Amino acid sequence: MPQELLYFPPYYVVGLYTIGIYRLFTDHHLRKAVWDKVKHASIRGIAVAAVYVAATYSTQRWFVQNFLLSGYGIFGKKSIKPPPEILETGLSWLQRIDTVEYTTILFILPQLSYLLNYFIRRNLRIARSRAYDLTVQSRGKPDSFWSKGYIEEWEQPPIIKGLNDPKGTKGKQQEGVLSWILWWPSQMVIRHFILIPISPYLPIFNILFTSATRGLYTARSLHQPYFQAKGLTPLEVELWLEERKWGYRAFGMAASALESLPIVGLGFSVSNRIGAAMWAFDLEKRQHRFANGELRKLRPDETGVLGFGKVLAVEGQNEERKLAEKGKLEGKELESNLQPPPLPLRK
């Protein structure tokens, strides 16, 4: 992948019709390794989900119509105004949609996703690991490529506080809070008592808000194999993430948003591992450029918002290096031209 993509990490998730999905469908060995692991469980899950929808659709439609969309609730009449029977849309081929049907579908899709995930959860975890490992292997690099260790890219790296604190660093504390929020009982409480009242009206907002909240946590988890391959210490991991936290948050938000989509999000959870592996490969190539002296350490005014350096600053370094190399070559040619011609051989 071109190094320019590092300046916009979400491209590894959503670019090229999602890079991960593209590779998953075009790479035969990768596709077969992943599909063979989940196909039988997926078939069982789809069959159970179909029976579940057939058995509960009418009941759930009644619940949506009488509680979520009507003016009545468990404790009596609500003060909100019931929505119209017809939802107007801006799509030319869907000018009028039944609000009850629309909301019922939105209400059922996450349940189907949970059912399918229940059947393939264990195999899906293995498939994700395979997807990452096979993508790394496809790069054809030896283990020594990944084990160079931490190479500092900033002239003035940030100071990480709380590494020896029992509570951990600020990032670790936030990760602990998010892990509680993402625990399935907490998710049930949040979804069924906080988000359901607004989900018929703002389903996209719910996904984006949740994804933004756990963006850094998701990106950190996706790159855990990369940190292990580099052999980073806990301090170096925290320093790495602190320098690139907004880049990781952007990547994690895009990945989390795709994984939050009902049903298809399970497939994106695999393709995101592929995108994370390709991003890790480009990050490591950049680390080698700093180690070899092709790029100098970034000054505080050159680091940029995402932590990968401002585009003009890095490109300026590239131009300086090319001009220096060109000057060396011209100097060697000039030196060779100034040398006197060799004397003829004596007979």
Describe the overall structure:
The chain is mainly alpha-helical. The chain has one domain. Helix content is 66%, strand content 3%. The chain contains 14 helices and four strands. The protein has helices at residues 11-14, 19-26, 28-68, 99-138, 143-146, 170-181, 184-195, 203-213, 215-222, 224-230, 234-243, 245-259, 264-291, 311-338, and strands at 72-73, 76-77, 86-88, 96-98. The strands form two sheets. It has a two-stranded antiparallel sheet with strand order 1-2. The longest helix has 41 residues, at 28-68. Mean pLDDT is 75; it is low at 73-77 and 91-95.
Summarize the main sheet: 2 strands, antiparallel
Count of strand segments: 4
- Quaternary assembly: single chain
Strand order of the largest sheet: 1-2
Assign an overall shape: elongated
Number of helices: 14
Mean pLDDT: 75
Strand residues, percent: under 5%
Helix content: 55-70%
List keywords for this structure.
mainly alpha, 4 strands, single chain, 347 residues, two-stranded antiparallel sheet, two-stranded antiparallel ribbon
Condensed summary:
The chain has 347 residues and is mainly alpha-helical. It has helices spanning 11-14, 19-26, 28-68, 99-138, 143-146, 170-181, 184-195, 203-213, 215-222, 224-230, 234-243, 245-259, 264-291, 311-338, and strands spanning 72-73, 76-77, 86-88, 96-98.
